[in-house]
Amino acid sequence: MKREDLSGRRVAFVGLGVMGYPMAGHLAVNGAEVTVFNRTMARAQAWLDEYADHCDSVLRVVQTPAEAALNADAVFLCVGNDDDVRAVVYGTDGVLAGMSADALLIDHTTASQELALELDSACREQGIGFLDAPVSGGQAGAENGLLTIMTGGRADDFSIASPFFAAYAKKTALLGAVGSGQLTKMVNQICIAGVLQGLAEGLHFAQCADLDINQVVEVIAQGAAQSWQMENRSSTMARDQFEFGFAVNWMRKDLGIALRTGDALGARLPMTALVDQFYGDVQAMGGGRWDTSSLLRRLT
User: Fold this and answer.
1) Buried b (16+ CB within 10 A) or exposed e, 41-52
2) Of 106, 124, 197, 297, which is least surrounded by CB within 10 A?
3) Taking a C-beta distance cutoff of 8 angstroms, is the pair 86, 141 a contact?
4) Residues 149-191 pLDDT 10s
């Protein structure tokens, strides 16, 4: 999906997981010169093999994040958690060791507000711009270039990033100062957790009442109960299929960040804390890699 001409723009992408792999691909397809780093080099090589045949721009795989960042206009991170981000940012092999002044560091990892503020401070010491920019939309959104990007940072940095974001996002927004993107992603995950628990209980009720779930959903999805989760997950939930999607382990990581931040802010999150415990039950059942819709499994 080509939507933005990024010809001549040099970027680095660190982290080629289920989200980063296609996001980096969209940048390449749109003309950017992309250098990638991934801890598993075979994954990086697979990315290069796939996109080299479809792109006219220069694509590279390197051995360290610092190498990836050399001469890059923008460096993108999409890794697992706060510690993973620090591992690819700091030290002689980290991206900050390779980035030039006036370059831009963009962190797409779902991480803490504290990390965002820390990275911004480190970047400013080197004259580097920074945006915390977690995404929503899942693997399908990344593959189809239809992500939502929640961004915190300065307006001039956001303007620089916007053409890159357009390659793989349908909606981008600058929510405020650095850290605002991560705070907004916490709101996103809090809302999703509540919707999924409600959907799981509703479908469980329908099963116990011997209702046809597909018929029920077809009707109620036309009214106030409609949600993305209902439209995209109810049928697989009804078939007891959970070996795909956004993993429970990652959702617990995200909810843990939200709950800790909520405590610091004095925000009361009783439902979020309860659903987090329910996801703990799913993990205990061996479902750490199951999709987050697997909340239904603990009811059946």
Assistant:
1) eebbeebbeebe
2) 124
3) no
4) 999 999 999 999 999 999 999 999 999 999 999 999 999 999 9
pLDDT of residue 2: 56
User: What CATH fold (topology level) applies to the domain 184-299?
Assistant: N-(1-d-carboxylethyl)-l-norvaline Dehydrogenase; domain 2 (1.10.1040)
**CA 291/CA 243 separation, integer angstroms:** 6
Token couple for 130: 């920074």
pLDDT per position as a tens digit, 231-243: 999 999 999 999 9
* Residue-level length of the chain: 300
Confidence of residue 299 (pLDDT cuts 50, 70, 90): very high
**Distance in angstroms (rounded) separating the CA atoms of residues 38 and 97:** 17
What residues does each domain of the chain span? Answer: 10-177, 184-299
Judge whether 10-177 and 184-299 match in fold.
no
Active site residue 185: yes
Point out the catalytic residue in the list 2, 170, 185, 253: 185
Contact 78, 14 (CB under 8 A): yes
The 3-state DSSP class for residue 40 equals coil
Tell me the pLDDT tens digit for each residue of 195-221.
999 999 999 999 999 999 999 999 999
State both tokens at 296. Answer: 């239904």
For 10-177, which CATH superfamily applies? NAD(P)-binding Rossmann-like Domain (3.40.50.720)
